[in-house]
Design goal:
This protein is of the alpha/beta class. Helices cover 43% and strands 11% of the residues.
């Protein structure tokens, strides 16, 4: 069994701006929602049987209380923001497990789902569909991998080491030192990717650094590490069988009308009526 975990927030952004380029700036009210749903159905057509999608139901999380400059919903275009909740409703109606996060983030949900799924002996592989470097910390050997749909790459533990210069477990430390502009924290001044990797490979986690390495910046680095460390304790599901796609619910027809794309209903019903397909993996 292969479990596919999808970053719904990233996919919504990707579809929104991709479609904006195609429509020359004229946003369709639910165009991005339609795009994400089609991409999920494509995964099922290619053999995915067990999958879940994580979204940021609200953009803020517990991290905003730790660092005032942490990312918020400010600056997100209203036309995009208005499609988050309809996407969650449509995914649920399509019969896909969806996790709308409030106190935690979608990344925390993906990390939690990866932990739960990888603990099941029946699961051969867990594929986390997102390019977000935060999720590299969840990669484990060839069993839990990160898939970049846009870049068409699959990153296992060796791939993480090649890209960042450190083991997956040290990604929170790496990001704490170099910063993450997308999440809104700057890292430690004067420490770039090469220096961060050298320090981490020499000393291990930031907590093990000699006092002279970071000096007065140590507490700040540990705070940033806390921001970068994904939570894995979200109680999303108890058994991977809950992630098996069994077809749409009766509510999906109304959702496709709201979205304005009834091709989704036909495509979904065709898939649901077909006999079982072999599993697919990137």
């Amino acid at each position: 069994m292969i479990v596919h975990l999808v970053d719904g927030t990233y996919e919504l952004f990707r579809q929104f701006y991709g479609r904006r380029r195609a429509t020359k700036g004229e946003d369709e009210p639910f165009g991005a929602v339609s795009g994400v749903l089609h991409s999920i159905l494509e995964m099922i057509e290619e053999g995915a049987t067990h999958l879940g999608v994580a979204t940021d139901h609200v953009i803020e999380s517990f991290r905003n209380a730790l660092w005032s400059e942490y990312k918020t919903g400010d600056g997100i275009e209203p036309a995009l923001l208005a499609q988050f909740h309809p996407l969650e409703e449509a995914l649920a109606a399509m019969g896909v497990a969806v996790w709308p996060m409030i106190e935690l983030e979608a990344d925390d949900a993906l990390a939690s789902a990866a932990r739960i799924a990888s603990a099941d002996e029946r699961v051969e592989k867990v594929c986390i569909w997102t390019p977000d470097k935060d999720l590299a910390q969840c990669v484990s050997g060839d069993r839990v991998v990160q898939v970049d749909r846009k870049g068409k790459t699959v990153r296992n533990a060796d791939g993480v080491r090649e890209k960042f210069g450190v083991e997956p477990a040290l990604i929170p430390d790496f990001l704490a030192l170099v910063g993450d502009a997308a999440d809104g924290y700057p890292g430690i001044a004067g420490i770039g990717a090469v220096t961060a990797a050298r320090l981490l490979n020499r000393h291990g986690a930031i907590e093990n650094f000699p006092a002279t390495v970071l000096g007065k910046e140590r507490d700040r680095a540990l705070l940033f590490k806390r921001l970068a460390t994904l939570r894995t304790d979200a109680p999303l599901f108890r058994n991977v069988d809950e992630l098996e796609w069994r077809g749409p619910t009766e509510a999906f027809a109304a959702c496709t009308k709201q979205v304005g794309d009834e091709r989704l209903l036909r495509r979904c019903r065709t898939l649901a009526n077909e006999p079982g397909q072999p599993e697919g993996a990137p």
